[in-house]
Amino acid sequence: MELVFGDYRLKIRERELIGPAGHVALSARAFDLLRALLDEPEGLLDKDALFAAAWPGMIVEDNTLQVHMSALRKALGTGYITTVHGRGYKYVGPRPHAPGVPEPAPEHNSGNIERYLGDCIEREAEASAIARLLEQHRLVSIVGSGGVGKTTVATAVATSREAAGGVWLIDLASLDSGAFIDSALIQTLAIPYRSETQVLQLVAEHLRRAQAVLLFDNCEHVQAEAAQIIAKLLAEVPALRVLATSQVPLGVAGERIFKLLPFALADGADEGLPAAGQFLRHCIEMSGETLSRDDYPVIQRLCRRLDGVALALKMAAAGASTIGLEAVDEQIERQLAGLEADWNTTLPRHRSLLASLRWSYDLLPEDVRGTLRALGVFNGSFSLAGALAVAGESAEAHIGELVRRSLVARDTANRGRYRLLDSTRRFALQELAAAGEESLARDRHAAFVTRLFASSIELWETMPDTIWEATFRPDGDNLRAALAWTKAKPNSAGYVELVAETTRFFLQEQLGAEGLATIESALPSAPDASAQAQARLGLALAEVARVNAADIKGRQGIESALGWLRDNDRGLRYFEALVMLTWITTFSRDRSEALPLVKELGDVLHRMPVSKTKAWALVALGTHMWLSGDREAGLARCQAGSAMHIETGNLRGRFRSLMNFTEIVHKEGDTRLALELAQSVLPDVRQYATRFHLSNQLGNIAAYLFWVGEIEEAERAHLESAPVMWPDGSYWHLCVLQNAAECHYWRGDHISASLLLGIVDKRVEAWPDGRQATEQIQRDRLRERLAEALGEGEYRRLREQGANLDLEDARQLAAM
């Protein structure tokens, strides 16, 4: 029997651990401890459980466990085992699985905090104190200078908490503007984001569903915006707890501040080494070096020079593994003496961190320095391919050296990616600008991101959605950075070209409103770009507008694109544009507009490879066959399209295309068939779909059930749908309110039903596309019944009264 986890393979029968470089030496006790941790990858093991696993029936001292656990950590490296202070140890690496079996996905509501865990050494007292504060106060800010270890302590504290809604780290370090905090929140929490929405309202509604803990990390450079958002969320979500790290307090009412100081420099209990020395010793030993008591005076002197700042000590340890402790101590002494007067030395520890960065940087060969400077343009993490594109082919050899010197870190969430700590990144950007290289590096970065997301559109066609998202989601921060850079340049053609390739990212991440706003911001500059970029931008507009229920806007984009694509690009983008316009015209008032498009689509179907777009094409053609009277063949073709959606790993596409088809079937009068088809996939929708698609599917089912007279079943479907949809005033939310109105009608509450219909009518009147088919059918019949029950005059009065109510009134009226 074997277990695979990350880069390691555990051979249980042979009692061997195989790593990237081959056999890993483990003692028998360390092997047993590792086996116990891997057997409980979601669990927290206390010392009794670990004693039972490695020393069954024996009496063992606590420090024996610590020694073997330290050896195990040293063998594996960081990112696999963490200490939960006062409680035990926890495995936090990639989920173990059998060879040949894909790594299982984590539970959605577990949060993401374990991706960011590191070894929290010599901070037990601080972590315990902060944990107690978080029990008593809803907002605790860990404040301290850069590099002091705020994130490490904060993640240790956050991990010790349990919350049904998850414990989530919101990383603000890569944001150049506080305007992007909203996007960081909804992306981290996987909240659908559509047009006409108030983002914080969506986030608050999401967080109210289950108690959660949010850790806002690196707030100092966006302090004002972060404070405003945190204050709003705390006011809206009573059960929420927030932990923040910042170099300055947030200034939010009720904020409790914990000042995290550098490691203590006074003598400690461990053979005379203070906490700073013990941390430095740990870092040196993790690199494979051994120390003796003879080294302690140098360690203490080095700790004093660096004022106990964690990041500075870590970089010193990296240097010590190469040139020795004495040489590191002497070189840092010279570096500190040579600091220019214009460095900010208000706080000695700021001076120490800058000195450590400068010292580490000056030790690098010039070509390696150039790589570090160039890497500063990456927001968040970056891939090796990205580094090569920006810093040149030599970057591959340089990154290993930068990792060894603690200037670049392996990303804990994805071991194939890297990242710079925020302080290192800002130092690198400063050096990049000073060297006159910033413009070139950012241009290369934008060009790489453009190519990357252009490939994402092609790859999406045949790549399962889950793999696609794991591949391209990590570069979301880099996409936003490249958008900001190209938008600010005098020549806007590059911005248009990049925006034209962003479609799939915004759709897969359910960032519909952000995507639509981004695309629309590029439209005025489109004439400056190539004809190809203009066509792709039109296609992007159509795709994103359609999921925002804005078919009119989408049609304008696709009609401007299809002609050029038809003449110049007979590949997947042409097919995609043709399928998109076919669907849009199918739902138009004059359905005859779709007929020539259906013929063209049928003519080219045989040329289309197996893909997600072809799956959509099959359902579109099946829908038109059904409309033309050939219902059996049309249904069979729709089923073939559904099967191809499954084959290509596009379950969302399967649900969406089926909803389109059932809406047409209902509109044409066969509501029983529409209901049967919608209910047939409901188990899969519940298991695999986003909450947005689940609410849509249940809402349609409720409308169909109302139509066929199954009122109790319809009400049950509505009551399941309503809490899932975001109460944001979007078109999809209005659909839920209209179902609520019909529920009230059948319960005999005609007043509430009329008021709700007035609220919905007022907002739909301002929607350029009006109601879609299912909602229009429902609304017309409901209006007739309410007018009959109340009298035309009274119904009109109540409807007009409802038109003046707001969404909070709607929420109260819709409550069942």
Structure description:
There is one protein chain. This protein is of the alpha/beta class. It folds into six domains: 2-104, Arc Repressor Mutant, subunit A, CATH 1.10.10; 114-259, P-loop containing nucleotide triphosphate hydrolases (Rossmann fold); 275-363, no CATH class; 366-436, Arc Repressor Mutant, subunit A (Orthogonal Bundle); 453-667, Tetratricopeptide repeat domain (Serine Threonine Protein Phosphatase 5, Tetratricopeptide repeat); 685-814, no CATH class. The strands form four sheets. A five-stranded parallel beta sheet has the order 9-10-11-8-12, sandwiched between helices. Strands 1-2-3-4 form a four-stranded antiparallel beta sheet, with helices on one face. α14 crosses α17 (422-434), α23 packs antiparallel against α24 (531-547) and α33 packs parallel to α35. The radius of gyration is 30 Å and the shape is globular. The model is unreliable at 338-350 (pLDDT under 50). Pfam families: AAA_22, Trans_reg_C. Residues 1-93 form the OmpR/PhoB-type domain.
